[in-house]
Amino acid sequence: MKRRELLTAAGLGLGAAALAGCGEPAGQSAPAGDPGQRFRWKMVTSWPENFPGLGTTAERFARTVNQLSGGRLSIQVFAAGELVPALEVFDAVSGGTAELGHSAAYYWKGKTAAAPYFTAVPFGLNAQEMNAWLYNGGGLELWQMAYQSMGVVPFPCGNTGVQMAGWFNREINSLADLRGLKIRMPGFGGEILARAGATTVNLPGSEIFTALQTGVIDATDWVSPYNDLAFGLHQVAKYYYYPGWQEPCAVLELTVNAKALEALPDDLRLIVEEAARSTNQAMLDEYTRRNADALQTLVNDHGVQLRRLPDEVLERLRELSMQVLEETAAATPLNKQIWDSMEAFRERVTAYHAISEQAMYGLRG
């Protein structure tokens, strides 16, 4: 049965069928299942309640699933700390405390060294390129392989686009200014900065403001103007640095308990997958608009000092990035497979984007 047929069988109407019809045929499958059978799932997240962009993306996914399924699969969303702490989302899904999680893969580096590849790679793929690699370049299959032994199935479910380098309470004029800097930075970026002499910590978003305000940290990355303005980070840090070398994009992940997903009828499984995919694009669309507006507010209304990291600093961070990424790739055969796939894709797409996206940006001025 094809995807369009599955969705039509679920009684979704023409709008839902058109959404799913963009995918490839799924092959022969079992009947859609008992239309009277209902499922009640819990989703735990790493985000504060109703937090713009991140938290509301999780809510959007839940609403979409409920609407497309006609209420056969309903999802209750829990903000960070309501059911489990922000950085325990993966364990909750893996252990069955919740059927779903919404977070970022680089928080789970301690569970599998491959996880950070699927959020952001320093100096790597942007959002458009990352989506292409995941959906059309074999990336999603590799991601699911990385989590398979832990009973979790991941899907992309949001993307911020290029982020900012972060908020700093001291200027960065040279490499020397990174030494001893206390900065909140997860994922590969944190490891790279540590090699540059900084002291890095991994804090959930809800703790960042207070940590900056009290001097526990000197600097932090968070997301980009939209979320940073919502957190009020301009009130506790003086300098706002770019470019976001550490996160050329940031994929948000939907984690699904493998047994729970398997227990769904085929049509509901497809709805989960397609709702994640539509939410993934919807978040990127939102951030493209909201970041542009929020940056103007930060600079024009709040007097934020926007600064570019010096070329010397960026070049050293690029060198350290390659060291970290190559060492991580060498750690396991799967890591190497992921990195080789991503690098080969980046080389091909970079050559094309040089005469397409990048060339057009140059023409626009």
Structural overview:
This protein is an alpha/beta fold and 365 residues long. 47% of the residues lie in helices and 14% in strands. It is built from 14 helices and 11 strands. It has helices at 3-9, 13-20, 54-68, 89-95, 127-136, 139-147, 187-195, 208-213, 225-231, 258-263, 266-301, 311-331, 333-354, 357-364, and strands spanning 39-45, 73-78, 100-103, 152-159, 166-168, 182-184, 199-201, 219-220, 239-242, 251-257, 305-308. The strands form 2 sheets. The chain has a 6-stranded mixed β-sheet with strand order 7-6-8-5-9-11, covered by helices on one side. Strands 2-1-3-10-4 form a 5-stranded mixed β-sheet, sandwiched between helices. β1 (39-45), α3 and β2 form a beta-alpha-beta unit. It is globular.
List key phrases describing it.
six-stranded mixed β-sheet, alpha/beta, globular, 365 residues, five-stranded mixed β-sheet
Please give the structural blueprint.
Elements: H1 3-9, H2 13-20, E1 39-45, H3 54-68, E2 73-78, H4 89-95, E3 100-103, H5 127-136, H6 139-147, E4 152-159, E5 166-168, E6 182-184, H7 187-195, E7 199-201, H8 208-213, E8 219-220, H9 225-231, E9 239-242, E10 251-257, H10 258-263, H11 266-301, E11 305-308, H12 311-331, H13 333-354, H14 357-364
Parallel strand pairs: 1-2, 1-3, 6-7, 6-8, 9-11
Antiparallel strand pairs: 3-10, 4-10, 5-8, 5-9
Question: Strand-and-helix sequence, N→C?
Answer: HHEHEHEHHEEEHEHEHEEHHEHHH
Mean of pLDDT: 91
Q: In what order do the strands lie side by side in the largest sheet?
A: 7-6-8-5-9-11
End-to-end Cα distance, whole Å, is: 49 Å
- Work out the helicity level: 40-55%
Molecular shape: globular
* Model regions low in confidence, pLDDT < 50 over at least 5 residues: 1-31
Query: So what's the oligomer here?
Result: single chain
The total strand number stands at 11
Class by SSE composition: alpha/beta
Beta-strand content estimate:
5-15%
Q: Count of helical segments? A: 14
Q: Which radius of gyration do the C-alpha atoms yield?
A: 21 Å
What's the story with the biggest beta sheet?
Answer: 6 strands, mixed
